[in-house]
Structure formats: structure tokens, C-alpha cells
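Worked example 3 (structure in, sequence out).
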């Protein structure tokens, strides 16, 4: 036979059972090129993903604007209602949420929200502290987002705006302390505070580790002090960025090697009504000049992790930026509010200005603002998506206006559409979303095999196994692995994907299943994280044809090749509750006599999950196995994803 040189692997010496799953893999005729953009990430401010999460700000309700709700809406009980009667939960308490009057040794006084003499129009409220009796210590403390994680030896940078009545000067003491204030871990006196609004700054090092720590601001006399935008950041942020991001969470993202980052969502792009849409211009520059609002996931967002920080994050992770703009109406699933037809151009301009901010020369209006914010070079923005999950005819009309204005000006930016085709319009990339049960994900292994290759590229912008999978168990993740392998083998047309939502804070979870969880001190990956990690780290350059002579309905296999490392990459998911054996005959490559690497995600219990307190229940394990002859027989454990990398001598053509 021509292929007498066929080499195969023998991974499991003990496997002498008849192989029920028989595959032939032909490496002599490589198939499609795998899209290098296939694995990206999706960030949305949901579940305190940014606020109290990725965004390293430690003070909650720093600007005293936590009760800012969408224009025309009202609050009642635990709900906020828009004028179109859309109801959303709210997870914040009163307007001084996060802040408590500090009284020690008989001190008396109180704190109040005030709107007289505001800091600026974006921050109309401030907090007034009145001390009538100083006692031993009087002032105010902030609990942070479910406690402040203070680390011994780490430096913290505090800034705040303050004013006094009648130009009076006073000393203000800023401290890091234990939850009951009995132990002070760091303290700084800021002298001469007073008069009109002014910014004050200080830094200190914590002498203790306490992950339920707090920040206090105290005065030692009976007096009145107004405070606003009280902020504290750890000195250590990712890449040492100012107004930066948490190091541990960013490292978790860096491990995913994301090709792109989608931002700001999601439904949040539309908002509960048009006033509540993401308005990127409110999210750049000095944090004291940013306007925050309650978002449609029920909590307040300062916009501290704004458009600029997002672009910086892309640059820091070596990922392309994919920014989603509002299409002229609010979220479709929340009783959309539409702008008037003659106002659509205002929204188009909002998008054009965002593109200019990211890409324009420093001589342009918005490019100059980017430079003023510390970044003269353009950012790596490569995609813009017009709207999210739109489902009405208005979208079609609006999309064309966006496309016609954006494409001629920024031909290098790819435009993503919510629809597959637009009458009399151009669709470059179409965004597909998929949530569902494991069965639905497994069923779609071959979904894109027959996708129209002449149609637009497909971006699976949101996907996640959300039903019947606990809070993210192995069954769901394996179903996603099958689905992603289906995308990989079709990535000539399905060129991009991103799991959603990316994050959840363990104390605020508004979505059934998410990829990465955290509290204020640690971060962990759900099983979906590890599937994404394994697939993104083992993305082949080309796919190889796999022919199944015989195979069960519960074993899924794809094969590809990594040209740089000259490695065959085999991916196998066993979704059944019993181990299965497979036999592979691999044509057209010569294997090195070095051990193959096997990376496996498995657990005897398909319902196994990772959680904050049990982060390592289901994590990939790497081992090596030696092959000895030309046919590979391998056992695949029940409930498993296996990735096998085998070194070859000459690579493939
Ligand atoms: O990922 C969570 C939400 O799911 C997104 O905001 C929305 O686009 C989708 O419906």
C-alpha cells in the first residue's frame, strides 16, 4: 500500500478490547485554515464584573451617585421601573450605600447626602459629614465591595475631593483598618483640608493582611466636611496602569490568549431605555468627571472601567478590540425605546467619534482627547458591532446608515451585524448567539458544516450552556467543547467566538452560568473556563479530515495540525457515563519517537463543578504517553475532554 509509512500511536498498552470507535485521519491533505481569531472574550458589566471586580477600585459608591437611575424611571422596593413599565431588580440600598458614620468613645454626628454646591454637573451629590462631638474618633468608613482586601506590605493610593464651610481648614485622617476599626493598619494625616472643592491624595502601606478591611476618613474636632469621589486603588494593578485593573483577574484572562475582546456587551449596550444606553463619552478622562448610572443588571456603575480602560486592556493583553455601539434604540428585550428617524445620525456620530478616539490622529478632536488621557498611539480597534441582539426592522434601516458612514472612513475596521443579510446593505460579519442545554450544544457539532460559504463570516458572539448544568458543571462544559470543536472545523466561515458572560462576583450573580468567578481576593475558572483555555491554547493552524468508520453517538473527535511546532492535535470528547475506546489510523505523517502530550479534563461525576472554595475540582491534567506502532488505541474516560499533541518529524505540506 502507498501509505506503508503510516505511523500510528499506541497509547494504551492494556487496550486489547475491540475498538467501537474507529477513525481514519489523513494528514496528507490538510483541510481548512483555522481562524486565528476564533477564541476571543466578551466583557459585559453584569454580576459586578467590572465594578467591584476587574476594576481595581476598592471604594464602593465612591461618588455618592449610587441611586442614579435611568431618566424617567422610578424606584419602589427592590425594583426600578422605566416609564415604559420595564422593571429591573436593584441590588443597592440607600443613597449612602457603602458608607457608615464612624463613632468611637462617645463621638456624635451624622452623614447625609447633599446636592448643594456639587463638585460638578456629572457628580451632583456629595456626602456631608457633621461631627457634633468628636469623642475618641469621628468620621465615616467605607466597607468596599464586600470587604476590602488589604495585603500586608502593599501600597494603597487614596484620593478624595473635600470642602469645608466658610473656608475653614482642618486636618483629615485617612486610615486602613479592621472591620470593627479596632486595629489600624495604615494611617495618614492630610493637613490643611478646606475651603472650596479640591482634590487631596495620599498613599500608605498596610501593616497587616485583612480581606475584610475598611477605609476610614476621620476628623478630630466638631465640624462639617463635604466629601466626594473618595477613591482607593492598590498600587499593584495590571501592567501598572493608573485607574487600572486587578492583577489576578487579568492574569486569568491572559491565560486564555484572547484574540479579541468584545465590550461593553451585551444587552447593556442598549440599556433599559435610551438614556440608560452605554454612553462612552461619559466613561473617559478624569474619574471625577465621569457620569455613572444604574445598569440593567441592577447595580450602579461608575464608568470607571470605561472605553479608554477597555482599549488599554486590549493592548495589554495583545488582543484586538471589538467595540459594540448603540444602534439608535435601547435593548430589544426590555421594551425598546427608539430614537426618532432623524436622530439616527446622532448615534452614528457617537460611533464615529468612538472610532476616532481609538484610531484617529492626535490632531483630530477625539484622537487629541485620547492623547490627553495618556495614549498618543492609536489603540488596536479592529471591529465594531452595530447593536446587540436586535430583532426589528428599524435595525435594518439604522444599520445601513451606520455602515455607509463608518465603512468609507474606516475601511480597515470590520463591521459586525446582528442580521445575516440586510436588504440593499452589506454584511461583513454576522453575530450568532447561543444559550441552551447540553443536548442542544452537542446537537450543533455539525451545525456549521453546511453554512453558506458565500455568505458573511460568522461570529458566535455569545454562547454558554446555561440550562440543566448547575452553576457550570462538567456536563455543560463538555457540551461546549463539542460545540467549539464544531466551530473549529468550520472556522473558515465561523471565524470568531466568545463565551458569555465572562465574570461573576460570588456575591452578585444575575446570570445562571458564567465563566470566571471571584471575590475580593481570589479568582477561579468554572469548567467552561478550562474548556476555553484548553481549546484556545491548542488551536491548530489547519484541520485534518477525520473519517469515522464506526463511532458511537457519544464520542466526538476532530484533528488538526500545528505547523509551527509540527504537531498533530487530536481532540476527543466522551460525553458518555462510561469509558470508551477509540482507534485512530493516521495517514501522511511520521511521528517522532518522543512521548505525546495528553491534556485531559475529566471527573467521575459529570455534575462536578468548581467553586470559590473548591477551585480545583475539575481542572486540566497533563501527562505523557508513548506510542509504539502505526495504529493508536486509546481509552477515553467517561465525561472527558482529551487533547493529544503528537510531535512529527517533517510536519505536513
Ligand atoms: O450574556 C448575558 C446576556 O445575554 C447579554 O447581555 C445579552 O446579549 C444576552 O441576551
Amino acid at each position: 500500500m502507498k501509505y506503508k509509512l503510516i505511523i500510528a500511536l499506541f497509547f494504551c498498552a492494556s487496550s486489547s478490547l475491540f475498538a467501537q470507535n474507529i477513525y481514519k485521519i489523513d494528514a496528507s491533505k490538510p483541510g481548512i485554515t483555522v481562524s486565528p481569531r476564533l477564541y476571543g472574550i466578551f466583557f459585559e458589566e453584569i454580576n459586578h464584573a467590572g465594578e467591584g471586580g476587574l476594576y481595581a477600585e476598592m471604594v464602593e459608591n465612591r461618588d455618592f451617585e449610587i441611586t442614579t437611575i435611568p431618566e424617567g424611571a422610578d424606584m419602589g422596593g427592590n425594583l426600578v421601573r422605566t416609564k415604559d413599565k420595564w422593571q429591573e431588580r436593584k441590588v443597592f440600598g440607600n443613597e449612602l450605600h457603602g458608607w457608615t458614620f464612624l463613632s468611637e468613645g462617645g463621638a456624635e454626628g451624622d452623614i447625609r447626602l447633599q446636592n448643594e454646591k456639587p463638585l460638578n454637573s456629572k457628580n451632583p451629590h456629595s456626602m456631608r459629614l457633621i461631627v457634633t462631638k468628636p469623642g475618641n474618633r469621628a468620621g465615616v468608613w467605607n466597607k468596599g465591595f464586600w470587604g476590602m482586601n488589604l495585603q500586608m506590605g502593599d501600597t494603597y493610593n487614596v484620593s478624595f475631593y473635600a470642602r469645608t464651610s466658610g473656608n475653614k481648614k482642618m486636618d483629615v485622617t485617612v486610615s486602613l483598618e479592621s472591620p470593627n476599626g479596632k486595629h489600624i493598619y495604615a494611617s495618614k494625616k492630610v493637613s490643611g483640608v478646606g475651603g472650596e472643592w479640591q482634590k487631596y491624595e495620599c498613599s500608605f502601606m498596610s501593616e497587616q493582611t485583612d480581606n475584610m478591611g475598611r477605609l476610614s476618613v476621620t476628623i478630630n474636632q466638631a465640624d462639617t466636611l463635604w466629601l466626594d469621589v473618595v477613591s482607593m486603588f492598590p498600587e499593584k494593578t495590571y501592567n501598572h496602569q493608573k485607574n487600572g485593573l486587578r492583577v489576578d483577574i487579568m492574569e486569568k484572562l491572559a491565560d486564555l490568549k484572547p484574540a479579541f475582546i468584545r465590550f461593553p456587551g451585551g444587552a447593556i449596550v442598549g440599556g433599559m431605555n435610551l438614556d440608560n444606553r452605554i454612553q462612552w463619552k461619559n466613561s473617559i478622562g478624569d474619574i471625577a468627571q465621569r457620569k455613572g448610572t444604574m445598569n440593567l443588571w441592577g447595580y450602579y456603575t461608575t464608568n470607571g472601567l470605561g472605553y479608554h480602560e477597555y482599549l488599554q486592556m486590549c493592548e495589554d493583553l495583545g488582543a484586538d478590540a471589538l467595540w459594540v455601539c448603540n444602534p439608535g434604540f435601547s435593548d430589544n428585550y426590555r421594551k425598546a425605546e427608539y430614537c426618532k428617524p432623524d436622530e439616527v445620525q446622532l448615534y452614528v456620530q457617537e460611533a464615529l467619534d468612538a472610532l476616532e478616539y481609538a484610531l484617529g490622529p492626535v490632531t483630530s478632536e477625539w484622537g487629541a482627547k485620547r492623547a490627553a488621557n495618556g495614549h498618543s498611539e492609536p489603540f488596536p480597534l479592529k471591529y465594531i458591532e452595530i447593536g446587540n441582539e436586535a430583532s426589528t426592522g428599524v435595525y435594518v434601516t439604522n444599520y445601513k446608515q451606520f455602515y455607509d458612514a463608518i465603512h468609507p472612513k474606516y475601511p480597515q475596521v470590520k463591521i459586525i451585524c446582528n442580521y445575516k443579510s440586510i436588504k440593499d446593505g452589506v454584511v461583513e460579519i454576522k453575530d450568532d448567539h447561543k444559550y441552551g442545554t447540553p443536548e442542544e450544544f452537542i446537537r450543533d457539532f455539525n451545525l456549521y458544516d453546511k453554512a453558506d460559504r458565500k455568505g458573511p463570516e460568522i461570529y458566535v458572539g455569545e454562547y454558554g450552556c446555561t440550562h440543566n448544568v448547575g452553576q457550570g458543571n462538567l456536563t455543560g462544559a463538555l457540551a461546549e467543547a463539542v460545540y467549539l470543536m464544531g466551530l473549529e472545523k468550520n472556522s473558515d466561515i465561523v471565524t470568531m467566538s466568545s463565551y458569555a458572560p465572562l465574570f461573576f462576583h460570588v456575591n452578585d450573580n444575575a446570570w445562571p452560568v458564567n465563566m470566571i468567578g471571584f471575590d475580593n481576593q481570589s479568582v477561579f475558572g468554572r469548567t467552561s473556563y478550562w474548556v476555553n483555555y484548553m481549546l484556545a491554547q491548542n488551536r491548530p493552524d489547519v484541520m485534518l479530515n477525520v473519517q469515522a468508520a464506526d463511532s458511537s453517538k457519544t464520542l466526538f473527535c476532530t484533528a488538526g495540525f500545528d505547523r509551527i511546532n509540527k504537531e498533530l492535535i487530536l481532540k476527543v470528547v466522551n460525553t458518555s457515563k462510561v469509558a470508551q475506546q477509540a482507534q485512530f489510523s493516521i495517514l501522511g505523517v511520521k511521528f517522532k519517537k518522543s512521548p505525546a502530550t495528553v491534556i485531559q479534563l475529566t471527573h467521575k461525576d459529570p455534575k462536578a463543578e468548581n467553586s470559590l472554595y473548591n477551585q480545583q475540582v475539575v481542572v486540566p491534567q497533563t501527562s505523557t504517553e508513548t506510542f509504539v506502532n502505526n495504529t493508536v488505541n486509546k481509552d477515553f474516560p467517561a465525561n472527558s475532554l482529551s487533547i493529544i499533541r503528537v510531535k512529527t518529524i517533517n510536519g505536513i505540506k
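Notes: Residues 1-19 have pLDDT under 50 and may be disordered. The first strand starts at residue 21 and ends at 26.
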